[in-house]
Amino acid sequence: MASSYRSEPEDVPTWAVGGLAFAGTVMIMIGVFQVVAGISAIAGDDVYVVARNYAFDLDLTAWGWIHLLIGLGVGLAGFFLFAGKQWARILALALAVLSAVESFFLIPYNASWAIVVIALDLWVIWSLTRPAIARAY
Question: What pTM was estimated for this model as a whole?
Answer without folding.
Answer: 0.76
